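=== Structure Prediction Worksheet ===
Name of assembly: unnamed complex
Input type: mixed (protein and possibly other molecules)
Chain count: two
Listed entries:
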Amino acid sequence: MSEGEFAPPPTPNIESYGPNAVYNRERCYQLAQGFFKDAVRRARERHERQKELKLRLESPELLSRRELIWSHSGKLEAKYLRFLRTKEELSNYAIVKTIGKGYFGEVKLVRKRQDGRVYALKRLFKSEMISKEQLPRVRAERDALAESDSEWVVKLFTTFQDNVSLYMLMEFLPGGDLMSVLIKYQIFSEDITRFYTAEIIMAIEAIHNLGYIHRDIKPDNILLDRGGHIKLADFGLSKGFRKDHEKSYYQELLQRPVPPSSRPQNNRHSVNIDEISLTVSNRAQINEWRRSRRLMAYSSVGTPDYIAPELFSTNGYSFEIDWWSLGTIIYECLVGWPPFAAETFYDTYRKIINWPHTLLFPDDIQLSYNAVHLIRSMINAPDARLGRNGAAEIKNHPFFAGVDFSSLRRIRAPFEPPLTSDVDTSAFPVDDLPQEGDGEEEGGPAPGGGGDASGGGLLLGAEDPEMFLPFLGYTFKRFEKSYTA
Amino acid sequence: MSNLFSGINARLRGTANKPVPAKSPISSTPLTDDGQLALPSSLSQASQSSTSLSIASKLPPLPASPSLSQTIGMMGSPEEALNAYPLPRPLPVWLNPAYARHIVKGNFMTLSARPKTVEQGEWVAHQVVEHYRNLWNFVRVVFEKEEDGKTICNATSCPRMSAGMNHSYTWLNNRFEPIELPAFEYITLMQRWISGKIDDTKIFPTEASGVSFSYNSQITTTALLTGPDEWVGKRSGFPKDFFSICQTIFLQMFRVYAHLYWAHFTEPFYHLNLEKQLNSCFSHFVLTATALDLLKPQELEPMQPLIDLWAANGTFPPESKAYEYANLKAGARLLQLGGMA
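=== Predicted Assembly ===
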């Protein structure tokens, strides 16, 4: 070994650089790591597809179709490569209608200009994400949806961003949400409730298996596809429930007996009801309450109705919070309103904390023993809650006797959305939402920041929005097996 | 992977026709000498119409005769092999095996291997865009202004677009005269040219409906067309000059990498602890470029010793073209000097 053959390396000295270099360093570091992580994942997935292709090409039954199989594979791979190469931006999509709205953003029905396909495009505002500390939540949602390949979870095709917003392009589920079905039919029979509950169990189990806790299971987040089967979404538009944030919020509420600030902001839509006046004979009021609740979901307040009590405590929580939420949904399907409904959010919080005393079943609704038993097992203390040992123990509850969970999606759903076109939004409360341009299909506004409209180019001087450190790695593109040729 | 760190004692492969760099300074050669440099005429045409500047270069020296290269390869000692390069002494930090490491383990080849069913032009287009995004990730670090308004790569730090003592690249002005530019300006003009190409959907089509697939004589019945009217990417809608444009893009990106190594490896990448990231992206770049014939062996010259080192230390697997183009003796000598052989 010859000493001194190489120039001696100086002691690494990051301090001699200015703050921008340190910021750029972090960005460069993360992008390089991310590039290889993505490249390796894509290479692995590609390899799997090639292996599968080889098997099919060697299969004697498919001998006559080999050329078709080969060319189809080549074209699918090529389409994906073009998709990866193309810059996604809002102007690639024509906006049809706003179909959902919330505090942090909105969901629009859009049509891709290039191929005419219809999607749901969720938009979140970056500034709100940062100031409301929603970044971990946004990131978790993107990761969960990107990793999931489950038929029970709404499919995420791609994520992209501009200077102002984050976008998630998802499959459009034309059946609307379970909330709309509840509004339409008021209450469900036990058979219908059993069907939806069984499907929701499968969906929650699917995300739990990916290692994610949904944390916000409610009828608004349970969507219905073309056939009326459910898929879980988290449009993430309601106020997040970060633990430390809720805790202080909740404690502040508790210290003030009747805090006027905790009343729904939109009092015009709030209906003066309580658990006594909410009876089966009072259906109109139930729906008025639901309608007002939906409107409140668009405000900053969100709804606490389905939240497990441990989310408000300092003791932490785990997967079983989602089973509590399902318990409250089963109650709502059978009874007509969620178990802790109250005039103000403050009262709802209070009822949830005191659930052993406040979980009551109305006398004038006949429920089976098994239904009540199931609800009481799920709306229960976390260490005794049904589901804490996994979804199987819920599936084995007598309420589900005879249900074949593995074939649920193949049976006919109780309500199939009657659709007139691929952009039929009759299942969505579009009339309650401000619409731009009277529902005409029109272009989205040009993305903010002038310089980045140039495809793959990163022209100097213009900050590329994807280079903004907190949102690095947000962009995602799924290989789509079902592209039409 | 099995082939990591296993190539040290491998023999020099017979096909290695690595040029022996001349020690003389590079002469300025007119653009018309395109037998040597992959500078398609389309490049200057496009530049004329858009920026009134064209890319040209002080050309690297012609490769020495194969016999000389073989003589050194076959008979010279590892020390002689390394000494044949016009390298400064002491050797640059980035040739020290201790600083030529990576953030990725395993065979990089899997990342650039074309899936069998994918048409070649489509795959080349994908690789161009991926490597362009990757490279600019590093350029951004030296190009973005600090609070005092200064960039790390500037006209004072890098008055020429250089890659070591013996390589500097010039632009052609609109009278086809080579002009020297600071690296910052050169790279800025080049970036504008490259993104102009990548964003042009006539050159890099993006319509999903236009895709095709690769021929397979065992499976596809359509006859394989050969002859003057066949070109890479034709069936997928890429233009006739697509491949030569991609070669030029890769050559230009290679020059940027070479500048980053020769001028900025320590300032700032080593100081910012990004040298492994740079190494991984550049070695992936070299593997891809050589595997797809987007860079010719003689074009690798300013970075040849690092390529030799990566062949010798197993970064480049023996089945790769980058390995084939390497002088393993020079690489082994660098490992030896670094106390790793």
